[in-house]
Amino acid sequence: MIELEDLYERYFPSVYRYLLSITRDQNLAEDLTAETFMKALEGIEDFNGGCDIRVWLCQIGKNSYYSHLRKQGRVDIVAEIPEDKGPFSETSMDTRLMNEETSQKIHRILHHMKEPYKEVFTLRVFGELSFKRIGEIFQKTENWACVTFHRSRKKILAELEESP
Q: What residues does the RNA polymerase sigma-70 region domain cover (predicted)?
């Protein structure tokens, strides 16, 4: 079993730097880092080792940040960090989503998107469900849910690139 103290000591700097890079606020990054490790403690049984634990922790931190933004009414939609950028860099998608006009475009794109892409994206982003849970809903595998989500995100990005 993984000890929280070990996780904290080993990964705190990376998680904090990542959150600082996306929040640009030291106090908020510190609060979110603490919250990240508390959530990690609660959900450590769900960590299946399918990715590096640092990536998992940063994902928890990013989701906590987006929850913070939603509570403040500062963002309408949340998307995953593209895999080609890695977990430690801010993405153009993150920046775009802060823009209300772009959020409206994304909602329009989602409205016209075919199933299961539309529902998988919605469950992951708005419902904040794990890929495992989404796979269970569709009676598919966790990998299927992950691939479907990433394809839907890719479609959204492609349409955003095409629109003026």
A: 7-74
Tokens 């309408």 belong to: 76
- pLDDT tens string 55-109: 788 888 888 888 888 777 665 444 433 333 433 333 444 444 445 666 778 778 8
Round to the nearest angstrom and report the end-to-end CA distance of the chain. Answer: 51
Contact yes or no for 91/153 (Cβ under 8 A): no
Cα separation, 2 vs 21, whole angstroms: 27
CB under 8 Å to 120, separation ≥6 — which residues?
134, 138, 145, 148, 149, 152
CATH of 88-164, one of 1.10.10.10, 1.10.10.60, 3.40.50.720, 2.60.15.10: 1.10.10.10
Instruction: Report phi then psi at 34, rounded to 5.
Output: -60, -45
